[in-house]
Amino acid sequence: MSPLSATVSHTAALARLGHALSDSTRVGVLLALREAPAYPSDLADALGVSRQVMSNQLACLRGCGLVEVIPDGRRSEYRLADPHLAPALSEMLQVTLLVEPDCCDGEGCSCA
């Protein structure tokens, strides 16, 4: 595929991924699920957030198509929705960005 042949669906998928990666809790969830499926309560405890916050973040990640629910009796477990996502996240962890100190504070970019 040539660099110019990205489709609208590719662009939308990357935009959803970018949205998901814009929040540190969602990033933590994706990185945790890269290792293994998990229950929301375990994710909340591991990331130090309330269960309500975790519920909201998982709903966002579901809406973005990045995670899916696995029914497990009365509980629900979550996993990454696509097997390509785990290696993609691992590859992104290898990227080194040189950030201008006055531009981004880690919580958002003031360059806009």
UniProtKB/TrEMBL annotation:
Short name of any one Pfam family annotated for the protein: HTH_5
SUPFAM superfamilies: Winged helix' DNA-binding domain
CDD domains in the cross-refs: HTH_ARSR
Span of domain HTH arsR-type: 6-100
InterPro entries recorded: ArsR-like_HTH, HTH_ArsR_DNA-bd_dom, HTH_Metal-responsive_Reg, WH-like_DNA-bd_sf, WH_DNA-bd_sf
Protein name per UniProt: ArsR/SmtB family transcription factor
Organism: Microbacterium alkaliflavum
Taxonomy of the source species: Bacteria, Bacillati, Actinomycetota, Actinomycetes, Micrococcales
